[in-house]
Amino acid sequence: MIDFDYEALRRLGLNNTIISRLAGISASLPGSRLCRITEYQRDRLTLHDGAAEFSARALPRLLAGSPLCVGDWVIAESNALNEVWISERLSPMNQLARADAPPIASNIDTALLVMGLDGDFNLRRLERYLALSASAEIAPLIILSKPDISDDADEKIAALIARIPPGTDFMKINGTDPDSVAQLNGWLGAGQTICLLGSSGAGKSTLTNALTGALQETGGVRHGDNRGRHTTTARSMHFCPSGACIIDTPGLRSLSPDSLSSAFDDIESLALQCQFRDCRHDGEPGCAVAGHIDPDRLRNYHKLQREVRRNQQTALDRIAERNKWKSLMKSAAVRSRMKRG
Ligand SMILES: Nc1nc2c(ncn2[C@@H]2O[C@H](COP(=O)(O)OP(=O)(O)OP(=O)(O)O)[C@@H](O)[C@H]2O)c(=O)[nH]1
Ligand SMILES: [Zn+2]
Predict the structure, then answer these.
(1) Is the CB of 204 under 6 A from ligand 1?
(2) What is the ipTM of this complex?
(3) What structural domains does the chain harbor?
(4) Which residues contact 337 (CB under 8 A, 6 or more apart)?
(5) Where does GTP bind (predicted)?
(6) By the number of CB atoms within 10 A of the CB, which of 234, 252, 306, 315 ranks highest?
């Protein structure tokens, strides 16, 4: 017998299709529970059973099959040591996944494709996200963020309309304005699962924070969540006061130097004209980039560059870099002491 509290789990997205899939599952231990995966970070899984969230691990036999992901419905069993193990996974209704990469999220009602009306605006990238949601048969909703800081929003929206399939929903939303965010209410009914996709800096966390902001407890499920403000480093599920579940994801692919160059080819081609070959576009003399590129976009570029570098570094490289910094800081401190003294 598998225990579950329908009312509580409905707020986590449980529906009749998933329940019907329980039929084929036989639980081996008494106290087996139906749960949803709310976070997946390296080998640490977090589950919610409608009453509480807790950590769990997957039985090796599950790890051998198709990978688990946030949004999956699973059966959890506790052993005598009070460890929670995932023993079964219910086949998902749908799944956002790319070839050759772990799945992003499953059992999704709407994919929110978040794209800034600033330098983030990129119709080719948007088409990749549209293709991704179409291949999973998940309804897309395009969110054009940062309308308040865009000076050519109308032109961008005209280009968007000319490019996307007719009938594709889109809306302008300023994630920092609650009235603007309220336009999303229609998509946030109880038990709806929304997945946010978009590049780093597009405004996904801002939107998640705005949508989950209010803290309140309802029916045993923690709605409005206390993960606090975050930048997206892991895929995780958050709960809205309205009863919807939001899955926030980090930028789609782990970045490669090539993908960074193609996304920022304007910066990289201007950089060829900087006076110094190793110019960091941070106030150096003869810099061709700094004055010509939106400062926010330049900041994001630097952030992503650091990310790429970190991905390429080995642990030894990182230690060497830290030591180099330490000795630089030390000699700078000595110099300033000498100046003062
Ligand atoms: N003016 C304005 N700023 C916004 C809006 N949405 C997001 N921002 C700002 O844009 C920056 C990046 O937003 P985030 O929400 O952190 O972006 P993200 O998509 O979560 O990025 P990652 O966590 O790196 O994946 C932050 O400084 C936000 O305050 C908006 O609609 N208007
Ligand atoms: Zn420069």
Answers:
(1) yes
(2) 0.95
(3) 6-89 (2.40.50.140), 95-248 (3.40.50.300), 257-340 (1.10.40)
(4) none
(5) 145-148, 198-206
(6) 252
